[in-house]
Fold this protein.
Amino acid sequence: MNNTSSRKMPIKVITQLAVAAAMLLFLAMASASEPKLIIVEPDNTQTEVCKFTGEDNNLKLSGDSNVLAYCELLAGVGAPSITAAVVVLPNQVQQGETVDVAWASSGPDEGYSCISTIETGPVNGLNGWQDNAGISKNGNTSVVASTPGNYGLGVSCSATGADTYTATTSLTVSEQQPGQKPSGLDITVSPSGVIDAGSNATISWSANNADTCNATSTPPLSGWSGNLSPASGGSKNINNVAEGDYTLSMTCQNSAGSNSTTATLTVEEEDNDDNGDIYPACSERKKLTSYGFTRRANFRPAGQGSGSNFAQIWGNWPGDSGHPKNVELSRNQFVSLKFNSGSHPGQGKRNIMHYDDIKGGDGGTRGQHFGTLLFIVSRCKDDFDIEKIKQDPSTQGKCVAAGTGALKVTMTENKPHECKIEENTVYYLNIVTTPGGYSHIGPPTIEEIEWQCADSEHDSCGALMGSYGSWPYDP
């Protein structure tokens, strides 16, 4: 049976909101450690709907705990059963403003799936929340309120042999008032992440209440410059994109003033696949992307600068000694940082990639440490095929290291415990965080790599990382 539950908050949402204010909103203002939303069932029993703890990825929407949220929980009926909750903050905005939507659900052990819905209101009126689109069982996202209207946002979850349940919440979007600057500016690049040089990309834009919009790029990107028409939104196809790290900008104006926004596009040369001098060939090596991981485009925390390759973070290889930088990873992410080894530094010289697990991260990852890191130096991008790397005679099979220690890199011959690389050659420094318990050479196979911060409950972690050693530095 697939029946939408009719139980849509029959409840006195601690109503008569005078009581709600006392028990709900002002609960947060009274310095409670875990402000929570409570509903009162018809039989006067109280049910906790959602906590704003921020520690368990459970409907954490705003740092301001004094914001009254609207949340709905539908109790499952029968066996198996599904429950769901959805919340939006703020729930009254003007056209072009951004809201945060979060949801959570639970269901039978054998699995279930959820979709986003727009129960009421313009079906295509929200940028980032679609009707009848697949979503994760728990999550949060930012949504631009593009079109005025009274919306009912829903999360609908179903499973074989179970009823379908839909949780809803309301959002009111009013028309943009005259005299306001352009709002809701957005630039989207597809495909996202790092793309190969020579590939094609699509850049889309949108803006509200804008008379004109103008595009620029640093460095210049052919096809993304000058007037964008229509100002309300559109897309441009950029063909054969050259290698570079591009900052795409858009400035929109009207009689009240202007606003700007930016996005990034990272393009890398596709190096070393089947050049004939790599054994085993890059094309024969397993990639971590085949095991549920994604490559992070920027190793730096938000707002800390670009970090899609080694030089952007630490300067030309081997880096700027003594100047570690904040870096971070989120769940099931890895980085593959391209670098050129440069000239031979002289016999006996080496470079050590090292991180400080005590000082670390920035913002949301401060105090949430990496724990064990797996370092790999390879001529192949995204390469975590440990078995193949250890077979590579050009690196003496020593370019894998795991632990809270370091990876030692050299150009000197006959260093049995150091990673041997060649001069003036392109390599990738591949890094992922993983559980401890391995020897210093890491897990035996790529299949045994698991993502984990030092604290397994954290979904992101970071550290201060830098390069040290006796290698002559050229930052």
Q: What stands out?
A: The mean pLDDT is 74.
